[in-house]
Amino acid sequence: MRALLPVALLGLAFGSIAPAQTPSQASPPAGKPEAPTPVSPVTVMPATAKPKVISTWPAAGATIAPGVLVLKVVFDQQMLPRDFAYSPGGAGETPECLKTPRLLNDNKTFVLLCRVLPGKSYSIAFNKVVSQTEGGGFANVASNRAEPGDLAFSTSSADPVTNLRDAISAAGLTSIDAPVEEAPAPGKPAA
After folding, report:
1. Model confidence at 35, in pLDDT bands (50, 70, 90)?
2. How many beta carbons lie within 10 A of that of residue 95, not counting itself?
3. CA 20-26-30 angle, 5° bins
4. Which pLDDT value is given to residue 102?
5. Rounded Cα distance, 25 and 44, in Å
6. CB contact at 8 A, 139 and 43
C-alpha cells in the first residue's frame, strides 16, 4: 500500500500520462478510411468431386514380368505431391517399394519404384488406412481425398526386368518420368 501512494500522488500532480504516438499510429483523418493490411495469401478452392483412379500400371488383374517395377497410378484430377497412402491390399503380398512416390509433371500421375518376385500375387491398397480427419492419403489440390481402392496383379515366371529403363518403358513412361530423381553431383549446381 505504501508503494502505491507515491505513484498515485505523481499521477495526480502531473495528470494522466499517455504514451506519445508516432504519425503512423495516429488515427486516420475522419473522411479517409484506413487501408487493410494484408496478412497472408489465401486461396479458396471451388468444391470438387473426389479424385478417381483412371488407370494403373500394372492394370488390375494383369500378369507382368518379375523384377523392377515402376508402379503407376493416374488420377482424373491434379493432385497434391505430398499426400499419398499405399498399404498392403486385401489379397496377395505387398511389393517391396520405396517409401515415397513421385508426382509427375502432369500433376495427375504418381510413380513408385518397386521390386516384385516371380510367380506371386500382389495387392496394394490406396487410401485404405486414412481417415478424412487425420489427413494424409491421395488428395487433389483442393485437399479432397480420393476414395479408397485396391490394385491386384500377379507376376509370371518369365525373365525378370533388371533395369530401370526397361521398367519405365513397360509402364508407358519416358526417361523424364523416372520414379526417382538424381541428386546433382558434388560441386555441380542443380539444373
Report:
1. low
2. 21
3. 145
4. 93
5. 32
6. no
How large is the average pLDDT for residues 19-47? 60
**126: amino acid identity, one letter:** F
pTM: 0.70
How confident is the prediction for the chain on average, in pLDDT?
A: 80
- Going from N- to C-terminal start, the domains of the chain cover 53-161
Instruction: Supply φ then ψ for residue 154, to 5 degrees.
Output: -135, 170
Concatenating the DSSP letter of every residue in 127-149 gives STT--TTT--SSBBTT-PBPPPE
CATH annotation of 53-161: 2.60.40.1220
pLDDT at position 9 over 60:
no
Burial 37-71 (b: 16+ CB within 10 A, else e): eeeeeeeeeeeeeebebeebbbeeeeebbbbbbbb
